Structure formats: C-alpha cells, structure tokens
Amino acid sequence: MSIAFIDLQAQRRRLDGKIEAALMAAVESGAYVMGPPVRAFETALAAFGQAKHALGCANGTEALALPLMAWGIRPGDAVFVPSFTFCATAEVVPWLGATPVFIDIDPRTYNMDPAHLEAAIEATLAEGRLRPRVVIAVDLFGQPADYPALKAICDRHGLKLIADSAQGFGCTIDGDHPLKWADVTTTSFFPAKPLGCYGDGGAVLTDDDDLAQEIDSYRVHGKAVAKDLVGRSFDHDPKYLNMRVGMNSRLDTVQAAVLIEKLNVFPQEIEWRMRIAARYNEMLASHVTSVPHLPTGNVSNWAQYTIEHPDRGGLAAHLKDQGVPSAVYYPIPLHLQPAYDHHPRGPQGLPVTEAKKEVVISLPMHADLDEATQDRIVAAVASYKA
Ligand SMILES: *Cc1c(COP(=O)(O)O)cnc(C)c1O
Q1: CATH-assigned architecture of domain 8-263
Q2: Is the CB of residue 255 below 6 angstroms from any atom belonging to ligand 1?
Q3: Which residue ranges make up each domain of the chain?
Q4: Which atom of ligand 1 is nearest to the CA of 202?
Q5: pLDDT 10s digits, 11-48
Q6: DSSP assignment of 177-199
Q7: Ligand 1 centre from 339 Cα, in Å?
Q8: What is the dotted CATH code of the domain comprising 266-382?
Q9: pTM
Q10: Per residue in 81-131, pLDDT tens?
Q11: Which residues have C-beta within 8 Å of that of residue 299, sequence separation ≥ 6?
C-alpha cells in the first residue's frame, strides 16, 4: 500500500461522519458568510489558544497582514522575519510598503535566533534608514519559537511581536501558548496544516480588545465597529460606514463547521503526534545526521518531522524507490528568492539558514500514522547507504 505524506482521509474516516454532517448542516442553513458556526468556532478557538479573542479570516497570509494593517505599518518601517520559512511570513510586509529584514535561525530548532535578531535591530537603528516596528517569529515545523527571549528583546526596543503559528498552532512552552508572549498569534487552516479545513482559512488571536475590534473591521472592508460608533449616530448597518480601507478576509461558514469538529479532537491529535515523533527520534537517531531537537517543556504539533542528512538528494531518491514520500522545506530561503533578495539581512548574513537548506528533509507525519507504516518508513531510511 502506498504511504501518504499527510493522510487527511484517515482522519476523516476516524471522525466517522461528523465532518460530513457538519458540512451538510452548514449547507442547509443557508448562512454561508459569517453564519453561526463562525462565531462558535472563534469562541472554541480562543478557549483552546488561551486568548481573549479569536477572529477567523480567509487564510494564514491575510491573518498576518491584518494586525500589520491595524498597527499602521507603512513605508520606512522594518519588520524582522526569519528567512527559513514559507514565503507568506515576509510577503505581507511589502504589501504595506514596509521592509522585511531577514534573521538567521537557531541550528537546533530552526526558529528565529534571538541573538541575531538583537544584532539586526541594533544595526537597523544605527543605520537610521528604517524604523524597527514588528518582529514576526515562526513556529517552524510545529515547535514554538523562543518566545521568552524574543519578547524581552521586543520590549527593550518597543516592538510588536507576532507569532506566525500557521505550522505550530497548538504548540506550547511549559503549558503556555505563544500568545503569553506575543501581541498576536496567527494561524492557517490550509488543509495540510495540523489544524486544517477543506480549503483556505485562517485566524488571528489576541488579548488586545482594541486590536480585535480593528481586525474585525479590516477583515470586512473597514466597517465601523463598536469603538468607531462611540458618540456617533448612524442609522444604517454599520458595515456600510467605512472607517478604514480594509479588505474581504472572512472565514467561510462551511470551513468553520469543519473546523469545529477538527478542533474537538486536536488536543488528542497533538498527543499522538508527540508520541509518533518520539518514536521516530528513537528509531532514527543512529541512521541520520540529526533528528529533531525539542527543548524541555516544549510541545510541538509536529507539522513536519524533519531530519538532516548529508546526502539528502540520494536519500530522497532511495525513499521514493521504496514508496516513501518525502519533502524539502525549504530549498530556497526567502533572502535568496528573486522576489525578496534585495531586502536587508541581519549583520553577517544568514550562515545557519544557508547550511540547513542543503540538508533538511521531512518524512511522512500526521496524527493517523500507525506503527507498522512508521516501521516501513524507518526501515527505508535505515537501508540507505550513500
Ligand atoms: C502556510 C503558512 C502561511 C500561510 O498560510 P495560508 O493559509 O496558506 O495563507 C504563513 N506562514 C507560515 C509559516 C506557513 O507555513
């Protein structure tokens, strides 16, 4: 039987008709845009993510753009981002005319290196061309960035901190979600993410009441929200009073309906993913250069299970012959991409990112990966002789 890289059908079968029923109920309700499941899902999501507010939106990319818009990020502003990530992390910055500054990663976790961030902020201030405004940290492959260290740096320099948890949503440090440190957590419900829907979707989580209202406004064409109506009378639907230049970035009712069912089982799935990853680590450690490192106290949702191998290309071809799919995230980091290579980098460049891009390779990983299949994957890796 062929092995899936991420097996979404196994999850659907396990949920035994719940998703189909939720979808049909949403279809029959006729409330296709911002219907009751959207609010219900937002409430459940906020509770899960230890947040005061959760706001659904169209995808994980716009989830990043919404807080930047609300904070008035503009030309001349610097937004510090890792380069070893999916392009969306940096993509939203030039949308607003601001400048991404690329930061290197920690070699063991692949997440933003706080020391390099600090050096880049200081170099940016010394140069005086750009105003440091925001840091976007990514929970790469599912594990939390070093939020305590990043938050201390942001506080010292008066910067906002976004946790781009599109991959890592549900990850924790000593039981706390990234929002304990970040001003905003964003996530994506793209199907292949650990908490995915059946199309595109995203969300923004925050404890900031004012920011939550502004994001609600920006996601619906800059409509008037409660704080805009203080001392003002408008006798039509406030969505026809435009306070800001916003956009159309809503989470569909049908996707919210799917997500309610998936969120119910998500905590259990994270436990399974932790167990599957620990088993991979144990069985693979002697066969590869490095298995993933998870600092004590961290929970990862294991969006990817990523190993390092000096002959990655050879290993990938061998795995393919054995019927085992694999993937490389990310072969070209953002600071080397044609669309982004003219943007600034932290001092001394990004040597760790440039070394890791050559050796990382991700193996099949999902909550329904059974031990027999995992044994086949491990045997295929172990049988590779470069
Ligand atoms: C997937 C992803 C996004 C974007 O999410 P979409 O829903 O596809 O727009 C942003 N950041 C990271 C790190 C991602 O992996």
Answers
A1: 3-Layer(aba) Sandwich (3.40)
A2: no
A3: 8-263, 266-382
A4: 7
A5: 999 999 999 999 999 999 999 999 999 999 999 999 99
A6: -GGGT-SEEEEE--TTSSS--SS
A7: 17
A8: 3.90.1150.10
A9: 0.97
A10: 999 999 999 999 999 999 999 999 999 999 999 999 999 999 999 999 999
A11: 144, 170, 171, 172, 270, 274
